[in-house]
Design a protein that fits this description.
The protein contains 16 helices and 15 strands. The protein is an alpha/beta fold. Strands 3-2-1-4-5-6-11 form a 7-stranded parallel sheet, with helices on both faces. Bound molecules: NADP nicotinamide-adenine-dinucleotide phosphate and guanosine-5'-diphosphate-alpha-D-mannose.
Length: about 425
């Protein structure tokens, strides 16, 4: 393994990809740039500082560079002289799918034109279904860490597009692993695979941990199970540093709007502002272990800092129903939901407790799944003990942050990161 730090993220335009790119840039993946620039400056101006001071400074800039890099006083220097060590500056790379309109809304705040100084994020067109393209990108970027977050990630949609889901989410991982081998980087790269709690499906034990048997319940989960095992096989067969992160649901204001949490918080904001009347949902009794995406990308990073690859569950250790999420989200805009009708049927509805003629939530069977995952509850003990990782955003705080963000977006006081997707 090398001490270069060059990360490649597939799925960088998605929820997790955007938080991870932010995290890696924040973590100072430009550390060596700072030290090299400072060394060059001190070598050039050594007559001013004297040989002894220069040597001492070089020593410290090598060994204390992380702390030097974070000092704002050095940022203008780093930006001004970055071309002296351009190689080290190209630290975070992302693969973006070609689209007829921009699909980079979630990372636009990180992206700068390549002709500017201080560029930290580089984007490449690519697709997990195109092996030649993946070999080309990996061979030229020569990453030291790859985070494979790209996927057709919607469970319900996977029933409509099972073949594509298998190709992208299952075989796509095989393509990535073989691209690493073709590029001759199997001893250089640490690889993270976005595995999922959906593998537990029809759960065989509660809570679910790394040792719980899998029982996938959708084409999405079956594809991800192939990905899980091909990764384990390549790890054992070729001694590669490959890690499965078995992540339970994680949400944020950047969550795609067709996932249930964001669908709810968007609807709550629009109903509050009088733009919509009713929110239509499927199974209100499904239970999920919901955390915050920002916490979970930190866990992904920690997994790849380990010397030995392994598989880890990331979860909060709490579970809540969709119904509870609905109640809490409406409560944040001052609306109390009262449930009426036969629970668990399409007859059930949620009305405004202060004006029961207002039907705010209805059940639409179109959102039911052919096979449902009723209960997910993770046991994150291994991640806590080995990585020192814990989920730090409580459920109530997560719901509140998402509702406030969507309310601000609907009122036009905050930008809509997805507006070009509409
Ligand atoms: P997301 O918001 O749906 O993002 C998916 C990303 O994958 C997007 O950047 C998307 O590009 C890209 N993508 C889709 N098809 C692709 C293809 N054929 N080639 C290359 N890239 C492709 O998902 P997320 O919530 O960030 O989740 C990230 C990963 O973690 C996914 O693999 C997901 O299955 C897994 N996961 C998520 C959770 C969760 O609760 N969020 C839990 C466990 C596992 P576009 O922007 O162009 O669509
Ligand atoms: N999407 C959606 N829309 N889900 C609904 C709705 C609705 O209108 N009504 C009820 N639900 C229920 C679903 O049936 C499911 O039980 C639960 O809400 C959560 O659905 P999603 O938010 O779509 O997430 P998911 O759990 O199916 O999948 C997410 O988490 C997985 C990890 O467990 C995705 O991010 C997957 O990519 C990820 O692997």
């Amino acid at each position: 393994m090398t001490d270069r730090k060059v990360a490649l993220i597939t799925g960088i335009t998605g929820q997790d990809g955007s938080y991870l790119a932010e995290l890696l840039i924040e973590k100072g993946y430009t550390v060596r740039t700072a030290s090299l620039v400072l060394i060059i400056l001190f070598v050039v101006y050594k007559n001013h500082f004297g040989q002894f001071l220069t040597k001492i400074f070089i020593f410290f800039s090598f060994f204390l560079s992380p702390s030097l890099n974070t000092l704002p006083i050095f940022h203008p220097l780093i930006n001004q002289y970055h071309y002296y060590c351009y190689y080290y500056y190209e630290q975070v790379h992302g693969i973006v799918r070609r689209s007829s309109c921009f699909n980079t809304g979630r990372i636009d705040h990180l992206y700068r034109d390549r002709h500017d100084t201080g560029v930290k994020l580089f984007l490449h067109y690519g697709d997990l279904c195109d092996a030649t393209n993946l070999i080309g990108i990996i061979s030229s970027v020569k990453p030291t860490e790859i985070y494979n977050l790209g996927a057709m990630s919607h469970v319900k949609v996977s029933f409509d597009m099972p073949e594509y889901t298998a190709d992208c989410d299952g075989v796509g991982v095989l393509r990535m692993l073989d691209a690493i081998r073709t590029a001759g980087l199997e001893k250089e790269v640490k690889f993270y695979q976005a595995s999922t709690s959906e593998l537990y499906g029809k759960v065989q034990e509660v809570p679910q941990s790394e040792t719980t048997p899998f029982y996938p319940r959708s084409p999405y989960a079956v594809a991800k199970q192939y990905a899980f095992w091909i990764l384990v096989n390549y790890r054992e067969a070729y001694g590669m540093h490959l890690t499965n992160g078995i992540l339970f649901n994680h949400e944020s204001p950047r969550r795609g709007r067709t996932f249930v949490t964001r669908k709810i918080t968007c609807a709550v904001a629009r109903i509050k502002e009088g733009l919509d009347k009713t929110l239509y949902l499927g199974n209100l009794d499904a239970k999920r272990d919901w955390g915050h995406a920002r916490d979970y990308v930190e866990g992904m990073w920690r997994m790849l800092q380990e010397d030995t690859p392994d598989d880890y569950v990331l979860a909060t250790g709490e579970t809540h129903t969709v119904r509870e999420f609905v109640e809490k989200a409406f409560a944040h805009v001052g609306i109390i939901i009262k449930w009426k009708g036969e629970p668990g049927t399409v007859e059930e509805e949620g009305v405004d407790a202060s004006d029961e003629s207002r039907v705010l939530v209805k059940v639409d069977e179109r959102y039911f799944r052919p096979t449902e995952v009723d209960l997910l509850l993770g046991n994150p003990t291994k991640a806590k003990e080995k990585l020192g990782w814990v989920s730090s955003t409580p459920f109530d705080e997560l719901v509140k942050e998402m509702v406030l963000a969507d309310h601000a977006m609907v009122k036009g006081t905050a930008p809509d990161c997805e507006k070009l997707h509409d």
